[in-house]
Structure prediction request, 335 residues.
Amino acid sequence: MTLTTPRKTSPAPASAPRRRGRTRTLTRRDVGVATAMLGVPLLLAAAFVWLPALGSVLLSFTKWTGVGPVRMQSCDNFPSAPGIPQPGCLNGVKNYEQAFTNYPDFWPAVQHNAIWLGVFIVFATPLGMLFAVVLDRGIRGSRFYQSVLFLPVMLSLALIGIIWELIYSPNFGLINTLTGHNHNDNLIDWLGDPKLNLWALLVEASWRQAPYVMVLYLAGLKAVDPALREAAVVDGANGWQTFWRVVFPAMRPINIVVLVVTVIESLRAFDLVYITSNGNPLRGLELLSVAVTQNIVGETQRIGFGSTLGVVLLVISLIPISLFLWQAFRREDQR
Prediction:
């Protein structure tokens, strides 16, 4: 009979105490770097965006030619005389009254900007979205097509204006030459006719805007979860239903960006009009941005009135953007 002695079990080692995460204190160098990274962009934004915008709002209530200071007195105390520039003074809301009632280019400019925005939303944006959807399918040579379509965005607006000015030339332009309207008895003046020049400029503006929208939507399509498309296919949805009911709602952030970019691009349209008109205002091409420039740096130099038009342009651009953002965030809160 053998006796077995039980083995002595060594006591379990005590669990080592967990080390608490040490909070690292920022050094002076870290604080300096963080301050520079945050402070420099804020200062640049304040110097080149916010302060000029606030200054424009304040100057819109004055009558100032850019010469001398702005006196905090009513303009009624400084009667104007022919040939003598009136000193800067407070004009109240008379600039706005003049813009809405007595400035002949104001309402045509508002109408043309609205048409510009409508064409961008109805034509250029869907066209860019179509390009993005086709290229996202991975067709052969998609990289080449993407580069070719994106080429107008890489060109400057001045060069685009020169290219299309050659296309629209009455005597030697591509369109009139192909259609046979390059003779003196049947010329079509695409840029000089007030009934045609706005639509001709909208074609070249859309030629540049559509590829820009295409790139934004391509980025949005790449970010959509592929599982959403697979689930839609399993449920029996076709390609059209998958895009509009699954993919497009998932790109809501991109849709907001596209809307903001579209509104800004349609309201700040200036380069193409300036190049087409050679710096001289043409009938049929009245735009708010052109009116602002003509009053501020033109021969009259009515900086106060030009600032008024700039404030109106700012308010018009903020209204649709604010409404769309409010609706988008409201839907997110309801979910």
User: Anything to note?
Assistant: The chain has a mean pLDDT of 82.
